[in-house]
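pinging the channel bc i need a second pair of eyes. not urgent but kinda urgent?? the chain im working w is below, pasted from the shared doc
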Amino acid sequence: MQKEELVYQDNHFTLDTYWLDPISDYATQVERPIVIICPGGGFKFHSDREAQPIALKFNAAGMHAIVLHYQLVDENHSVYPLALQEMATTLNWLKSQKDVHHIDLQKVILNGYSAGGHLVADFNSIMLDSDRRIKVFEDDLKVIPAVNILGYPVIDMTVGWPIEEDWAMKIAPDIYYWQAQEHLTKNGKPTFIWQTVTDGTVPVMNSILYAQKMDILNIPYELHLFGSGDHGLSLATYVTQNPGNAVNLNEYDAKWWDLCINWLKMQKILPKL
């Protein structure tokens, strides 16, 4: 893993990059898909359980991976719109890395968990519509994501999370950014969504609302709602288990990963074999 520092209008932020090295046996190098991962953490921190372990799983499936350390709530900043601007800056930066790391820029994936899922959903809704994007990010968007993957995402900050409205105001003083589903247009990209119906932190209605809006707009999606399991499962295996914490394990929910890989093949991000 290597760290990369990027800047948007004097605001510095970091990426953890997990590049796949070229294979010397190949006569021609393969251009590989890349995923930008946005961990959860309630906009207070970036969960390591949804960072490196996820990145390495994508690496093992033949994809480059980046963990975006997007803007959190602090004494000087709210999350929005700066986090959207950081994501756009990261996507534009990828163009400069295309030949260096053999990236297929037609196969860029945005992946968010919990609060990070809200960032990805908001980006899909707001930043892929040129008229709305220009109000947030003045530069052209040189690289457009192909698909999204959302794990137990916050979609609508008026539906169960956060509980305190004052925290929502700290995340985004402008309520325009609160409800990702309200701004989704036909420019949104296909999205894989998974959550548990027993999620005690982010109500499952968040995932349903986003899928419902995608359905109305005829945007391809796949929604998996598992019958049991806690919030923040990550891979739901021992790899991301907080030692001694049994609620991090769920053999049924862990199947989300294989379902997701299958969906990426359906979307032609990955080859069938």
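so The two ends are 27 Å apart (CA to CA). and The mean pLDDT is 96. — does that match what u expected or am i reading it wrong
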